[in-house]
Amino acid sequence: MSEQPQGEQPQGEHPRGEQTQGEHPQIVFDDVSVEFGDRPALTNVSVLLSQKRIAVIGSNGSGKSTFARLLNGLVTPTSGSIRVHGLDPVKQGRDVRRTVGFIFSNPDAQIVMPTVAEDVAFSLRGRLLHGRKLSRIEVADRVAEALETFGLTQHAEAPAHSLSGGQKQLLALCAVLITEPSLVVADEPTALLDAANTRRISAHLLDTLPQQVVLVTHNMALAARCDVAIRFEGGRLVDLGEPAAVIDSYARDHA
Ligand SMILES: Nc1ncnc2c1ncn2[C@@H]1O[C@H](COP(=O)(O)OP(=O)(O)OP(=O)(O)O)[C@@H](O)[C@H]1O
């Protein structure tokens, strides 16, 4: 382990991670637990993260997706409190959903409109970008640009559900990123992608995007490219630190 397990600090102390504050806004968990029925999914998680690229790793069922879903209010804590860029996902759900773009591992969950171009344009409906509403022409231009970025231009008029799994994943990314969320949370975004698209998407998420990114992944090569990694096991945050060290201890524990 590169650092001691989280969540055991006495009340009143600062959550861990504060020593590594960066230029990005903060994600703060204070003694957060989540139970589904009477089964704990996360237990006493306290952490402060302000790095630009945050990897979330750990075994199957360890609580990674639950952690990610807490960030935009898809899951609510059973106890404890959360602040994401100053917002409380429980009390300010609407603001949080505008601030946090969430990319699911199953892209079918995110397709809402019949065609690819309509689905991307739908994300901008009723949204202010840079403090103002976009005109129809601006929306069309932005959609065209975003489709080009994600290699979907030739599928613009295709039924969204006719795309392959990987193409749907690209569409989901495109539809979320076009809204320019200030935090991007991606839960296994490359799971369905081939090698070329994994490179393309990981370069976009990890190298290009100016925003803060939380990346839940089993792909250790991607986790290694982040600024910090956190690791869950059995619903507890058991490690936080330099990705190489966190990945090493994870690999050792599973050798
Ligand atoms: N909606 C839910 N209802 C009941 N139990 C749930 C729910 N979501 C998650 N869990 C349980 O919480 C625990 C943590 O699940 P979670 O999806 O957060 O793990 P994970 O680390 O993302 O796993 P994986 O790597 O397999 O995707 C698991 O035991 C899971 O069965």
Automatic annotation (TrEMBL):
Family per UniProt?
Belongs to the ABC transporter superfamily.
Q: Which residues form the ABC transporter domain?
A: 27-255
One family name in Pfam for this protein: ABC_tran
Q: Where is the composition biased (Low complexity)?
A: 1-10
Alphabetic keyword roster? ATP-binding, Hydrolase, Nucleotide-binding, Transport
Region of interest (Disordered), ranges = 1-24
**InterPro entries, alphabetized:** AAA+_ATPase, ABC_transporter-like_ATP-bd, ABC_transporter-like_CS, ABC_transpr_CbiO/EcfA_su, ECF_ABC_transporter_ATP-bd, P-loop_NTPase
Protein name (Swiss-Prot/TrEMBL): Biotin transport system ATP-binding protein
Any single GO molecular-function term of the entry would be: hydrolase activity
Q: What is its EC number?
A: 3.6.3.-
Lipid biosynthesis is among the record's keywords? no
Q: Which organism is it from?
A: Subtercola frigoramans
Q: Which domain of life is it from?
A: Bacteria
Q: What class of enzyme is it?
A: hydrolase
